Please model this.
Amino acid sequence: MASAKQLQWFKSEGAMLDRYYGELQKKWEELHRIYDLKFDKRIRDIDPVDVVKIVRFYPIVRQVLGTVALNYPKMAFSVDEAPKEMEIEDTLDATAQSLMRLTSMKSHAHQCVFDALFTGYGVARVDFNPAGDEIIPPYTTNDDMAEDVSQITRMAPGFGHIDPVGSPHRMGDKRYIREKMWIPRDMLMQDPEIQNKKKIKAT
Model:
């Protein structure tokens, strides 16, 4: 259980992250609008319908996704001491490929690459979907998540908040990663650990 001092620290960090990522989100959305050719640049004496819009970033994005993202992720194994007759590398490779299919890992990784082109980073989390209906709220069972299997899930950049302190290229240096998420109100009301339920308001 966190102490009152720790809770206050996380509350202040949360307020800081809301401001910081709120400003970043505006910049990212503007980049995405430009990528979608939704920019309004008037040219004198030329009707808007006659202007051909071309974004330099568009072909670069297509090239990165078409060359890098579509070929990855891959899992490679090298087993030096196993007897050749066991063919353990082939078994591990087949298992890894099966896991990536079950978890739709490639689509999440591809979206993380796309996110990184606009925001500078892509975030994916590891989830676990237990068998049956025992999944922990606010997560809900669905057809995309295979039962009783760990899942890789992409987090939207505006909702995956990384500690700004520490090395920008080493996630292990970060003190925390915060995810903001939408939670069904009924789940909160039924959670015995949630206090002051009368103050919960839908947004």
Summary: Helices lie at 4-35, 57-67, 88-102, 105-119, 185-190. Residues 166 and 172 are 9 Å apart (CA to CA). The beta strands are 123-129, 149-155, 160-162, 177-179.
